[in-house]
Amino acid sequence: MAERNEFSPLRNFLAAAPDGAEGSPDSAVDSILDAVRLHLGMDIAFASRFIHGRREFTHIRSAFPVPAAPGDSEPLEDSFCQRILEGRLPELILDASTYPAAREVPLTAALPIGSHLNVPLRLSDGEIYGTFCCISRVPDLSLTERDLSTLRAFADLAAGQIERGLDRRRRSDETLAQICSAFEPNGMNIVHQPIHRLADGRPVGVECLARFPASQGRPPSDWFEAAADIGRGTELELCAVRLALQGLPYVPTELYMAVNVSPEAIMSGALLPILSEAPPGRIVVEVTEHARVPDYGALRAALDALRGHARIAIDDVGAGYSGLRHIVDLRPDILKLDMSLTRDVDRDPARRALTQAMVALAAEIGSAIVAEGVETESERATLAAIGVGYAQGYHFSRPMPAVAAQQFLLGSHGLSASALRPGRTQGPSRLALSA
After folding, report:
1. Contact (CB, 8 A) for 338 and 322
2. Is 310 helix (H, G, I), strand (E, B) or coil?
3. Bridge partners of 368?
4. pLDDT of 411
5. Is 275 within 8 Å of 309 (Cβ atoms)?
6. Following DSSP, what letter does each residue of 267-299 receive, concatenated?
7. Nearby residues of 303 by Cβ (< 8 Å), 6 or more positions away
8. Residues 94, 143: Cα–Cα separation, whole Å
9. Residue 82 to residue 68: CA distance in whole angstroms
10. Where are the alpha helices (DSSP H) in 269-376?
């Protein structure tokens, strides 16, 4: 048999998979097992973990079908691993039939096992996670301690990937626990940020924003992204919409309420029954977008089904993916300019020119414009001079709990308490947001 090079297989593996550290830890371990099995000329390579007195196979790579699969387990005492850990068998076995302690393992004759190399999988804190093993069905007397050293090098690489996978699962479990807490009572709150008409400063609506008491400094967007990562994004969004609608009685009926919803949640079909419970003309659906829309036709059809219950706004225009395709294909009633456009619009000619272009486009297609993130009087005055009709931001008010927002709207802007009467449902689309 040709002499094996201790370092070339490891070098070749790393050269062939330069991005392995960024991919799936499980697939990386499979690749490592394939590389070492082929280099050593063995039939089977596997990784296992020790759990509750058993040896569980986590990864198996073989040149032929084997009577085991990842997830299968056996008592540790019935394995080579236990005997090797106890010192009853060596890590390098050239011919298993020559060792009484190997012959008593049922698998030796059943597989059969000829040569056997086995080293521990040791995590960075020194804990033995399991074992890393190569097996041939016939004895290979050419195997040496150098081959065992090669196996150890690959085992170290595999242990790093396994530990990365453990860390990822731990973080995923923590994320799941946090996201689940948002569905508990008081796990998520809704605040209102008023939206004002620039011509006279009067409020025309409020945007509902989710807040998470257990956020630990994380922005709300992180919660929705994390929920999407574990498959509960739409569920969390719809929960936020339901919670927002509970605050509708605190919003004067002359004003509208805007809720943020992603295309995925809109196309789920679950939003329409929720909005159908709200008075007509009171709700604006702001389409949020942080990734490309795969099917504009499906999204437009879903939005058309909502139009009898809500007006449609495109959020964050000028940032991310909320661009001209959104505006052309979705026919929004309202365009919400992202704060990246409105911030410093009074001092930046480029931002001013882009905003003027959006005003002209909105006038052409019959949409109103709301500028987000307005913080100074100079920004407000510039936007008004350009022709922007509405705005929100810290210059007017910060987001507030619903009751505080109600008092702000009634006490500071001349709205009467009679505006809170449930029977009044005239549409603010026609009263407050005519372009």
Report:
1. yes
2. strand
3. 334
4. 77
5. yes
6. HTS-HHHHHTTSPTTSEEEEE--SS--S-HHHH
7. 266, 285, 287, 312, 330
8. 7
9. 19
10. 271-275, 296-306, 324-330, 339-342, 349-365
Segment 178-183 long-range contacts (CB within 8 Å, at least 24 positions apart): 178/214, 178/223, 178/226, 179/223, 179/226, 179/227, 179/230, 179/232, 179/236, 181/214, 182/212, 182/214, 182/223, 182/227, 182/236, 182/239, 183/235, 183/236, 183/239
Q: Which residues contact 372 (CB under 8 A, 6 or more apart)?
A: 316, 336, 337, 338, 339, 342, 391, 392, 393
CA–CA distance from 137 to each of 34, 64, 152 (Å)? 17, 11, 21
412 pLDDT band, cuts 50/70/90, is low
Residue 369, beta-bridge partner list: 335
Contacts of 175 (CB under 8 A, 6+ apart): 226, 229, 230
How far, in Å, CA of 87 to CA of 99, rounded? 13
Establish how many alpha carbons lie within 13 A of residue 63's alpha carbon, considering only the half-sphere containing its beta carbon: 13
Q: Choose among 234, 231, 256, 286: nearest CA to 424.
A: 256
Please write the tens of the pLDDT for every residue from 216-259: 778 998 889 888 888 889 999 999 999 999 999 999 989 999 99
Q: Which of 370, 372, 374, 375 is nearest to 388 (CA)?
A: 370
Q: What is the pLDDT of residues 104-154, one digit of tens each?
A: 998 888 889 999 999 999 999 999 999 999 999 999 999 999 999 999 999
User: Within 10 A of 9 (CB to CB), how many other CB atoms are there?
Assistant: 20
184-203: average pLDDT: 93
Alpha carbons 84 and 346: distance in angstroms, whole number: 75
Kindly report the pTM of this predicted structure.
0.67
Does domain 8-170 fall into CATH 3.30.450.40?
A: yes
CA-CA distance, 221 to 213, in Å (whole number)? 14
The predicted-structure confidence for 20-63, as pLDDT tens digits, reads as follows 444 688 899 999 999 999 999 999 999 999 999 999 999 999 98
Q: What pLDDT band is residue 413 in, cutting at 50, 70 and 90?
A: low
Contact 132, 154 (CB under 8 A): yes
Phi, then psi, of 12 in degrees rounded to 5: -65, -40
Identify the CATH class of 183-431: alpha beta
Q: How many residues does this entry show for the chain?
A: 435
Q: Could you count the other beta carbons within 10 Å of the beta carbon of residue 414?
A: 11
Q: Are strands 390-391 and 115-122 parallel, antiparallel or unpaired?
A: unpaired
Rounded CA separation 111/54 (Å): 19
- Sequence spans of domains, the chain: 8-170, 183-431
Inter-CA distances, 432 with 12, 201, 334, 389, Å? 67, 12, 12, 10
